[in-house]
Structures are given as C-alpha cells and as structure tokens.
Amino acid sequence: MLELAHIRKTFNPKTVNEKVALDDLSLRLNDGDFVTVIGGNGAGKSTMLNAIAGVWPVDSGSIVIDGVDVTHLSEHRRADLLGRVFQDPMTGTAATMQIEENLALAARRGQRRTLRPGITRQERSLYRDKLAALGLGLEDRMTAKVGLLSGGQRQALTLLMATLKKPKLLLLDEHTAALDPRTAQKVLELSEQIVMQNGLMTLMVTHNMRDAIRYGNRLIMMNAGRVILDISGEEKQRLTTQMLMDAFAQASGESFANDRILLA
Amino acid sequence: MNISSLLNALPGAVAQGLIWGIMAIGVYITYKVLDLADLTVDGSMATGGAVCVMLMLNGVNPYLALLCAVLAGMLAGLVTGVFHTAMGIPPILSGILTQLSLYSVNLAIMDFKANQGINVTKYSLIVSQRNVRQLGFDNPIFVTLIALAVLIALLYWFFGRELGCALRATGANEAMSRAQGINTNIAKILGLMISNGIVALSSAMLAHYQGFVDVNMGRGAIVIGLAAVIISDVLFSRLFRNFALKLTGVAIGAVVYYIVIQIVLWLGLNTNLLKLLSALIVAVFLAIPHWKAGISARRAGKGGGLHA
Ligand SMILES: Nc1ncnc2c1ncn2[C@@H]1O[C@H](COP(=O)(O)OP(=O)(O)OP(=O)(O)O)[C@@H](O)[C@H]1O
Ligand SMILES: [Mg+2]
Q1: B177 and A82 in contact by Cβ < 8 A?
Q2: Which of B213, B247, B248, B264 could pair covalently with B207 via S-S, beta carbons 3.0-4.6 A apart?
Q3: Contact B175/A77, CB-based, under 8 Å?
Q4: Model's pTM, two decimal places?
Q5: Comparing A77-86, A207-216, A232-241, which segment has the lowest mean pLDDT?
Q6: Contact between residue B139 and residue B2 where contact means Cβ atoms under 8 Å apart
Q7: Domains and CATH numbers, chain A
Q8: No. of H helices and E strands in chain B?
Q9: ipTM, 2 dp
Q10: Among B267, B187, B246, which residue's Cα sits nearest to residue B27?
Q11: List of chain A residues whose C-beta atoms are within 8 Å of the C-beta of residue B182
Q12: Size of interface A-B (CB pairs under 8 A)
C-alpha cells in the first residue's frame, strides 16, 4: 500500500520563482493497483513521483510505502522499496558500464555493498534468461557497454533493473515519451506484462490519453499539484479521451487545447 | 646537445615517471572513475612525503612510515569529501580548500621547514635515485614496477567488488546510483580517500627517491596526473579496454610525459618554463574532444541544411 497524506512541495520558496508544485496532495494506492497518471504540463506528476522517491524532502505531509514511513528517509535509503524508470533513457542506466554490471547493481538494491564480488556466475545465467525474455537480443551482448544501446533497449533494460528485485512500488515517469511510436508501444506492452506477472503496485505517468485508458485498473488526473480525478474499475474501462478532456476542462476551468497531451 | 647526455638522463626520467605514474593512477580514479576533478592532490603530493620522511627521521620503520603516509593522504581525501558532500561545496573548490590548508599542515609536519632531507647512507630507503643505473633488486625502476603491479592488481580487484562497482556507478550516473540504493556521498568520499591515499604513496616514494621532501613538491601535480591520463587516452584508448590495462596505460603515460620533458630540457628549454609548457599541452589535449565535437556538429548541421 502507498499512502500520500497532505503532501506539499514548494520549489524556490520565498523567491520570485516560488512554485507550489504539490498542494496538499493526498493519494492512497492499494497493493496491485496499476494507476495511470495524466495531467497538463507542470501539473506536478513528476514532482509527485520524485517526492515518493525522495529526490528531495517534501515541505510537509507524510509518505508511507508498504507500512514504512519514508517521509524522512534519504533517496538511497528508500530505494529498496522502489523501482524507477525515467523519461530520459540516459537516466536509468550507467552508460559506461556493461549490461550485466548494470543488472548486478540493480540486483543489490537495498543491500549493503561489501567486498563480495560485484557479479557472480549464477547471476550471469539468471540475467541471460531475463534478457532473453525481453526478446531484444540483449542476452548475447551482456558485456557490451549500455551506452551502445538504443533508447528503447535502454528503457527495456531499465525496466528489467527496476523489477529485478521486486519493488513494493514501481514508478514509471513518461518512460516511453522519448521513444519512437513503435518502440514506445513495445516498451509499454513489456511494462504491462512485467507489472501483471509480478502484481506490482505501479504509478505510470503518460501524456497519451489512450494509453492511460488502455493500461491499468485506475486512472488519476492531476492539476496544479492535486489529484482532480480518480477513476477505477469498470468506470475506467468505459472512459473515452473525450470524457477525459471534458473532465479536465470542468475541473480546471481550462481546456487541454494547447497542451502536449496526445490525442492520437 | 649530445645524445649520450640524453641517454644518461633516461633511466632517471623513467624512474620518476613510474613514481609519478602511481600518482597519476590516483588522479585517474577521481577524474575518470568518479568524474570529479580533485585538486587536493597538489597538497597530498607533499603530505605523503612529509609524513614518511618525518616518521623515518624519528626512527620509524620505512614500510610503516609509508603506510602512515598513505593514511595521511586518505585523511586529506576525507576532508575534501566532507567539504563536498556534507557541506555542499563544489568539488573543485573543496579540493582547493584542502590543498591550501594542506600547505600549512605539511609545513607543520615538516617542523616548519620548507624541506627535510633523508640521507640514503643513514636510512634504508625503499627507492633511491642513487641506484637508478644499477642492475639489481634495489634499482628504483624495478621496485616501483613491483609497487605498480601490486597497486594495479589491488585496484582491479576492488573495482570488481560490490563496493567498487558502486563507486564506478556513482561516477557514471549519480541519479541512477541513488535509485539503486547507493549512498553516492559515501561513494565519493571513499573514492577521494582511495585516490589521495595513492597520491600520498607516490609522494612518499618520490621523497625516498630524491632523498628529501619539499613543501612545494606537489605544485602542479594535478596537471601532471591529467597529462598522464590524457597521453594514455591518446596512445592506448583503442588498445587497452580492460580496467587493469587502462591503469597500466596511465602509468606508461606518466613515463612518456617524463621522457618528453627530459627531451625538451635536453633541447635547451629553461627549467622554469616547464610548468607553462605542461599546462599548455594539457589544455590543448583537454580541448581536443571539444573541438572534435564542434567539427562533427558543424558537419551534421551542413548535412541537414542540404536535405532541407
Ligand atoms: N527542481 C525543480 N525546481 C524548480 N521548479 C520545479 C522543479 N521541478 C519541477 N518544478 C516546477 O514544478 C511544477 C511541476 O512540475 P512537474 O515536473 O512535476 O510537472 P509534470 O506534471 O511532470 O509536467 P510534465 O508533463 O511537463 O512533465 C512545474 O511548474 C515545474 O516548473
Ligand atoms: Mg513530468
């Protein structure tokens, strides 16, 4: 379970650039919830995910993941609870390290790093199987530097890294936005497959309304640092992009017109 | 300008190059592995020698003194690391602050004298200039080669361990490292400590080699270290892919640097101009990737224009 209670986050407080990015945000996710997150630019979607991940401390409110109050834990100390895939394919992997080394780093998430080997033979064969399951041919390039991979391959690898040690919560922040449509589709399907297989509680930010409707069992819309729409179950299955746009216009008093939200 | 005087100077250049090669490996760890430019080394390149010489003058066993020198260097790295991580000071400035304070610290260690000698006839030195042309086990080239081999083996082992991998990951991608639960602050501090420990080892060996420690002996060390790293990049980047080989390449880079310096001196350059020359050479080599990127971007731009 994830519980966000009354989260507030202000960037550049007490300056001309002051920006309240999360404004008394509360949200509760149940185990196994696969939630898609939509909202206009600057709505606070990434900020919410970063707050959960602990990229910086929040001003007030509390964050509880699977019964653990992580509000005051630093980013690396709550990493064991989380799997993360970022918008920029460069962010999730170490380009100058090998594919298998990246996986080995991820496999040790939440463990103390000691003088034990950085990677063992058993691990290699496990990674080979997992990579083979991605169907990208990466299993034959395990000692290649990740920097040589395409964006889609890197995102698939990051997804694998995020879920290698089963996280309590998976955070996907527009993780297909930088990919071409076909690759994006593949990575999305792969994400769904991994989420379903492991029953992972997931927050997936997307700008594509159709994807937001198609994937997951629940959809939330954000605006001005709050959740303004929360739809799940059968109701979600009946959603159309038009209904979402209307809901947005109604709740925010603006229209999606000039937004980056993709209707395609 | 006869060739035999140059040849005569070569063994010394090689020995010095190898000792500075140890220091360059320390620089490689911060500059290449951690992706930090650490200026502490200009200070710790004198600290190691100061600690080692002063302990030996007080009757401490040379190997124990060498170990203490390494620990002192690690302490210097720790200070820079704390400046950077706990106090949020940018890495370059953190290094400069430590370097500056080390100048006083080094003088204090050396009883407030600018230099302290250690006589080869009275003390058993691990490496000495005096034996550089002798064939035998106490030839400094031989001894330093062994030290380098042990050091490279240790580092190769360490950076293949979980902790070493965490350090490499921190240098490669900090955001990703934190997402994978790595305490990147600790990783940086540890890297700075290892690096400066190695630099101090080199410093202590250099003090043995030349028979004295000078408070200014580290001035410009970072530039020499970078020069070695860059020379190795230019000469071996295609050849040496394995980490141990890369470290070996850096040590060779330092030797090449000292041989080139020797040749330039032999050609009649004023010794006082050496640092200017080194800085210029390093600046040019650091600029090469930038220029290359500029050229290829311009080419790409032109290509795009043709298609438009
Ligand atoms: N590190 C930061 N420093 C200052 N302001 C920030 C920072 N991160 C986000 N903001 C601001 O907070 C607001 C919310 O940003 P956020 O990135 O969460 O939006 P988003 O919903 O993810 O939008 P997008 O769809 O563009 O990704 C924006 O106004 C943004 O400019
Ligand atoms: Mg965003």
Answers
A1: no
A2: B213
A3: no
A4: 0.92
A5: A232-241
A6: no
A7: 2-97+151-262 (3.40.50.300)
A8: 11, 2
A9: 0.91
A10: B246
A11: 76, 105, 113
A12: 83
